[in-house]
Every structure is written in C-alpha cells, then in structure tokens.
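Response to reviewer comment R2.3. The reviewers asked that we include at least one raw input/output pair. We reproduce the pair for TetR family transcriptional regulator here without editing.
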Amino acid sequence: MANPGSENAENSDGSRLKDKIFLSALSLFAEYGLNGARMEQIAEKAGTTKRMVVYHFKTKENLYLLVLEYVYTQIRASEKQLSLEAIPPVEALVQLVETTFDYHADHPDYIRIICMENMQRGRYMQQSALLRQVNRSALDLLEIILNRGKEKQLFNETVNARDLHRLISSFSFHYVANSYTFTLLFEDGADEQAQRQHYRKMAVQVALRYTCP
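Raw output as returned:
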C-alpha cells in the first residue's frame, strides 16, 4: 500500500523532471537550433532518458514549439509587470524601452531561439495559435502609452504602436544578436558594462526622438 501523500510526491517529481527537460531543451535549441539539437542530448542534459523526454513531450518538434511559445510569453509577461498605467506617458515609454533593452541583454537564449525561427522562415510559429494572441499585448501596451501621450500633445499623432515596437525591438535585438561580430569589428577591448549602458541610453534617445514632436 502506498504511503499517504506518495502519489502527490510522484506527481511533483514528474513535474520537476518535465521542467528540467524543458529548460535543457531551451538551452540546446538556442545553442544548436531545432535540427542540431538531439533528443539524446536533451535527455542527457536533464539527467534522464530519451524515453522520458518522449513521454513528456512526444516529439522534438512539439518540444521546440513549446519553447518558442515560452520565450515570447516570458518577455510579454515582463512588460505586463511594469504597471505603466499610473506613470506619465513619456516616463512610461522610457521605462518600457529600458526594460526591453535589459530583457534582451539578460536573455540571450531568447534572441537565439528567435533567430533560429527566422532562419526557418517562421515555419513553427505559423503553427501556434497562442503566439499572435500573446504578442498582441506588446502593441496594446504601446497603444495605451501613445494615446495618453497624444492626448497631452507629447507624442506625434502619426506614430503608431507597430512601428514604435519595431524600432524598440530592432535596437534591443541587434545589440544582442550581433554582439560578437560588432564588438570584434568596432569595439574590441571596450568595457562591456559601459557599452551596455551607452546603447541602453541611446535606445531611449532614439525612441523619444522618433515619438516626440
């Protein structure tokens, strides 16, 4: 007869293993891409067997799609946590740009996963009903900030959320995605933290100059 609570303990152990497999997959997909990462590698990194990876996630492609959804969900969640509604619009925009830049810089695996998906021409993203819904919040947040700023005549009427999001994302994304080549070509020997603060400040300046009259 099982000990009281043993079933819950087994479920908890299974959940922890599933999480370990998932995080191992995220790391390996970021490093090697979908085609380069093997199920055996994922299992070994998670300290389990390929059979258990298949048990929890069925196929490598299914696991990859879940990872892709996860990295987008995480950055959108970080934006929602800012609670920018109570902050004046210009300050809200500044805080959003700074947070976006920092999130990209602190989560290079997020960038690599998205780079890999772009190399596959968005093949797996097209299969996800979740991703459009999740990422809509990025534009919704910017639209609220822009509308509040336009009411106070602080922002240009012609600026829209989609274009501003592309501007902020592109600056933040380039900083991480091209960090090795750009640094080797143009900033060899530069102080890494000083450069990060420089480009973070520059991202804010670019967004404000684009948005404000």
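Residues 6-36 form the longest helix (31 residues). The CA atoms of residues 65 and 127 lie 8 Å apart. Further pairs are available on request from the corresponding author.
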